[in-house]
Amino acid sequence: MSTPAVHVRGLRRVFGTRAVLDGIDLDIARGEFLALLGASGTGKTTLLRILGALDRADEGTVLVPPARTVVFQEPRLIPSRRVLGNVTVGLPRGAATRETGRRALAEVGLAAHADAWPATLSGGEAQRAALARALVREPELLLLDEPFAALDALTRLRMQDLVGDLCRRHRPAVLLVTHDVDEAIRLADRVAVLRDGALVRDQSVAVEHPRDPADPAFAALRRALLADLGVHREPAPQHAN
């Protein structure tokens, strides 16, 4: 059996007297897409930040690959750099890096915006630039912290399709933190639910592609996940305007 990209055992993170994460065991295989669900304040982002070396564990073992990148809810582009400069920030300067950055922008549909300023981009375009910045580094682990939460419904669906396609092509291990149950089922190979500092569910998504919310298997998994989250009535469907 190959070594997983992410290997976590007995992870604890305490803030004050509260254990936000309490004895987490988690593996993510290379090339696997894991979605992590949970109510606000359950420690989803804390776990992601620990895997991204943006926070520390108080106890436990955390093994992650050195090549990892994070895409946040906000694009976090540097206003004083053009889009291409944002994508390649921190990489060695030169023609080869610029060409690599342009290829990454082409992958996310922003080839024509390489010389644009971040302020001229729409929300979806800015988030695509942030995704290109992450993928240009060819990470072994891609950490997505609710990257679509601030987008309108239609743009969100398009970004989900884009991320799914790019992850299948690049094959990093992926951890997606989200509140959106349908998004988790639509994108992930596995879905985990975090509640009261512990993982209460961690299972494969046995729904055939293309994943349609009207599929009985999709609907059954949605109901189970919502119950894990303490929601016993399905929310009304959201329609893109």
TrEMBL record:
<protein>
    <submittedName>
        <fullName>Sulfonate ABC transporter ATP-binding protein</fullName>
    </submittedName>
</protein>
<keyword id="KW-0067">ATP-binding</keyword>
<dbReference type="InterPro" id="IPR003593">
    <property type="entry name" value="AAA+_ATPase"/>
</dbReference>
<dbReference type="InterPro" id="IPR003439">
    <property type="entry name" value="ABC_transporter-like_ATP-bd"/>
</dbReference>
<dbReference type="InterPro" id="IPR027417">
    <property type="entry name" value="P-loop_NTPase"/>
</dbReference>
<feature type="domain" description="ABC transporter">
    <location>
        <begin position="6"/>
        <end position="221"/>
    </location>
</feature>
<dbReference type="InterPro" id="IPR050166">
    <property type="entry name" value="ABC_transporter_ATP-bind"/>
</dbReference>
<keyword id="KW-0547">Nucleotide-binding</keyword>
<keyword id="KW-0813">Transport</keyword>
<dbReference type="GO" id="GO:0005524">
    <property type="term" value="F:ATP binding"/>
</dbReference>
<dbReference type="GO" id="GO:0016887">
    <property type="term" value="F:ATP hydrolysis activity"/>
</dbReference>
<dbReference type="Pfam" id="PF00005">
    <property type="entry name" value="ABC_tran"/>
</dbReference>
<dbReference type="InterPro" id="IPR017871">
    <property type="entry name" value="ABC_transporter-like_CS"/>
</dbReference>
